[in-house]
Specification:
Blueprint lengths: L3 E10 L2 E11 L4 E5 L6 H8 L7 E6 L2 E2 L5 H7 L1 E4 L11 H10 L5 E4 L2 E4 L2 H14 L15 H13 L5 E5 L7 H17 L3 E5 L3 H7 L2 E6 L2 E6 L1 H5 L2 H8 L4
Parallel strand pairs: 3-10, 3-11, 6-9, 9-10
Antiparallel strand pairs: 1-2, 1-4, 4-5, 7-8, 11-12
Bound molecules: adenosine-5'-triphosphate and magnesium ion.
Length: 251
C-alpha cells in the first residue's frame, strides 16, 4: 500500500473526459514521476489530489485517510504540499516573509524544530524560514522583494514555502518549466538534496525527460486521461507504447 493511493478516478469537464479510471500508487519515500503529452490530464489529477478539484468518482487516500471532501487547506495539513504550475507567491513581500507565511497557517500553531514541538513565535518563524532558504540556496536573497526574483528563484522560493510546512509529500507540477539548462540542473540537485535530507515522498509532473530520468524511481505515463503504463525508468525508456505515444522515439 502506497502513501498515496488513487483508485478508479474519473473527472469530466462537460463533454471532455479529462481523467478516465485513473489508478496510481505512490510508495513512501520515493520519487514518482507522472509524464504525458499536453492535455493528458496531469494537472487535473494533481488538482484532484489536493482538493482543488473533486473527482466525479473514485477514491484518493493519503497516509491511510481519504482526502475527498476535504478542503485544500485541510489536505495541506495532512502533510501534502504542492508547487503549482504557475508560481503562487506574494510579490510585494520579501523572500523571507513569503517563507514565513505558511508558518502562520499551521492549524495547531506549532512547528517542529530539532525534534521539539513548540508554539511558534515570530522569531522561531523567522529562524525556521531562514533555515529553509539556506536549504534552497537562497539565504542571500532573504531581504529582497519576491517580485525581483528570476523564474528559477521563484521556483526555489516556492519549494522553501512548501518545506517550511514539514510535508510528508511534495507535489511538483512542472518545476523546471521555462528554466534554462543550468537552472534545471540546479533544481535536480536541489530535489536530490531534499530527498536525502528528509523523509519525504515526491510526485513530480515533468515534460523534461532529463529531469524525469535523473530523479524518478517510478514513472506513470498518462495519455488522454488514462495511465498507459507504470514502471521503472529503465523499462519506461524501452517501452514501445511509450516511445510511440510520448517520447517520439527520440529519447
Ligand atoms: N477547468 C477546466 N475546464 C474545462 N476543461 C479543462 C479544465 N482544466 C483542464 N481542462 C481540460 O482537461 C484536459 C486535461 O488538462 P490538464 O491541464 O490536466 O492537462 P496536462 O496534462 O496538465 O497538460 P499540460 O502538460 O499542458 O500542463 C485538457 O484537455 C484541458 O483543456
Ligand atoms: Mg499541466
Amino acid at each position: 500500500m502506497g502513501i498515496l493511493e488513487v483508485k478508479g478516478v474519473n473527472k469530466r469537464f462537460g463533454g471532455l473526459q479529462a481523467l478516465g479510471d485513473v489508478n496510481l500508487s505512490v510508495q513512501e519515500n520515493t520519487v514518482h514521476a507522472i509524464i504525458g503529452p499536453n492535455g493528458a490530464g496531469k494537472s487535473t489529477l494533481l488538482n484532484c489530489l489536493v482538493g482543488k478539484l473533486i473527482p466525479d468518482s473514485g477514491s484518493v487516500s493519503f497516509d491511510g485517510q481519504s482526502v475527498l471532501g476535504r478542503s485544500p487547506f485541510a489536505i495541506n495539513q495532512m502533510g501534502i504540499s504542492r508547487v503549482f504550475q504557475t508560481p503562487e507567491i506574494f510579490s510585494d513581500l520579501t523572500v523571507l516573509e513569503n517563507v514565513m507565511i505558511p508558518c502562520f497557517a499551521r492549524r495547531d500553531g506549532t512547528f517542529k524544530l530539532n525534534g521539539i514541538r513548540s508554539v511558534m513565535s515570530q522569531n522561531d518563524m523567522r529562524a525556521k524560514a531562514m533555515a529553509m532558504l539556506e536549504d534552497v540556496n537562497m539565504a542571500d536573497k532573504a531581504t529582497m522583494h519576491a517580485a525581483a526574483m528570476s523564474r528559477g528563484d521563484k521556483r526555489r522560493l516556492e519549494m522553501a514555502m512548501c518545506l517550511v510546512q514539514d510535508p510528508k509529500m511534495l507535489l511538483l507540477d512542472e518545476p523546471t518549466a521555462g528554466m534554462a539548462r543550468a537552472d534545471t540542473n540546479n533544481t535536480i540537485d536541489l530535489l536530490k538534496e531534499i530527498k536525502e535530507k528528509r523523509n519525504i515522498t515526491i510526485a513530480i509532473i515533468e515534460h523534461d525527460m532529463h529531469v524525469v530520468f535523473s530523479l524518478a524511481e517510478r514513472i506513470t505515463v498518462l495519455a488522454q486521461g488514462t495511465p498507459l503504463v507504470e514502471d521503472t525508468p529503465e523499462n519506461i525508456k524501452g517501452h514501445p507504447k511509450v516511445q510511440e505515444a510520448y517520447l517520439g522515439g527520440n529519447h
